[in-house]
Amino acid sequence: MESNILLIITALVALISGAVVMYMVYQAMQRKKSSNIIKEAEAEAEVLKKDKILQAKEKFLQLKSEHEKMINEKNQRVLTAENRLKQREGTISQKFEEIQRKSKDVDTIRENLSQQVEIIEKKKEELEKHHIRQVEQLEALSGLSAEDAKQELVESLKEDAKAAAMSSINEIVDEAKMTANREAKKIVVESIQRVATETAIENSVTVFNIDNDEIKGRIIGREGRNIRALEAATGIEIIVDDTPEAIILSGFDPVRREIARLALHQLVTDGRIHPARIEEVVNKTRKQIEEEIVEVGKRTVIDLGIHGIHPELIRLVGKMKYRSSYGQNLLQHSREVANLCAIMASELGLNSKLAKRAGLLHDIGKVPDDEPEIPHAVLGMKLAEKFNEKSEVSNAIGSHHDEVEMTTLLAPIVQVCDAISGARPGARREIVESYIKRLKDLEALALSYPGVSKTYAIQAGRELRVIVGSEKVSDKDAESLSYDIAKKIQDEMTYPGQVKITVIRETRAVSYAK
Q1: Residues 327 and 203 sit within 8 Å (Cβ to Cβ)
Q2: 416 in Cβ contact with 349 (< 8 Å)
Q3: What is the pLDDT of residue 203?
Q4: Which stretches within 210-368 are classed as H helix?
Q5: 9 contacts: CB under 8 Å, gap ≥ 6
Q6: What angle do CA 419, 381, 372 make, to 5 degrees?
Q7: In a 3-state reduction of DSSP, which class is residue 306?
Q8: CA 400, CA 375: separation in Å to the nearest integer?
Q9: What span, in angstroms and rounded, lies between the C-alpha atoms of 452 and 467?
Q10: How far apart are CA 154 and CA 147, in angstroms?
């Protein structure tokens, strides 16, 4: 038993001693391994250090080369600038020498000129004395002073020039008629034939019809409150008189008159008429009219195929719908003129698109938001220039009534097409009072000239017959009188189309048989 225990103890001691030996061997191996890792790390660190040093050296060399390159470029620029400065210095010195040389030449020339001026002055004095002696001799021979002779010569030359000018004008007109009349008629007729326009006249409505006269009382309201509110909101005078089943809307602004008509129609249809409701309906109607104006303008330019017009000009084109001239609706007139201009420009080989654009905008000055005291053609030209229209279009707008000088071929085309549209049958109508006044003004204007005995405005004021006395007016004077009357009518009167002036001079011999 004891021997077994001893054996076990001996075995345990041997086992423990073996374990201790193994642990010691393991520790020795670990220390050796750590020392190897440290050596490897140190070796790697040394390699990294060398790489970084090499990279730093390469970067330094690169920066150094770039810096040297920049310095070389700057040096080169400095050298170039120095060379330029040296060249400029040389050029300036040469110019300075030339200036000094020229100044010496100028001084020499100035001295020569002063001497020549003195000689000329002396000769001038001698010529004046000689001229005075000749004038005195001529006055003594003719018995007239120099001023009287000059006046007679001027009057004689003036009469000869006037007669020659009238003769030349007649010859030029006759020649132009012979050579151009046939072609011009062909172009005009073809242009008119290709534009089919209705002769019916669309005009702004100024009379509001009602079903019965009881509605008049409701429109007036208690103590006139409704009608006063309506007039204040629309700016239109509303006349309620004894006219059966009708109310008259009076105002110069056709847009306001249309707003008043539509608002009144809505109020009567709705049945609720009081100041608050009136203001609400008028504001709503005004917005609808503004939207309709813009829509009409857009539709018009789209129908005509015109692009790139400023929105404000499009609005003014739509506003033409509510404006009329001698009873002719302005928008329909402008559309017709635009089509005529395009056709005529195409026949003449010109830009038809620009011509159509100018024809549409030619009366744009009749519908401004404010009312300046200038002709509508000039105002339209300024509006076109303001909204960046081309100079050809602006000039055609401004010169279609000859307020501005025509500078392009589009201008006479617009003027002619405007006259064609206004002169066609059924296009325009005129109030009887203004029509009669215009005829009387035509006759009175012609009667104001000396030698005129009678005047007759015929063909609805499109022709003026002027009867002159044969003993007071000669044939040449008759031609001059016709031209002067036409010029004065054109400058002082407003009329649709054109007026033909015919001066009649006749000699009558009367005797009696007894």
Answers
A1: yes
A2: no
A3: 44
A4: 214-220, 225-234, 254-270, 275-304, 311-319, 330-347, 352-361
A5: none
A6: 100
A7: coil
A8: 11
A9: 6
A10: 10
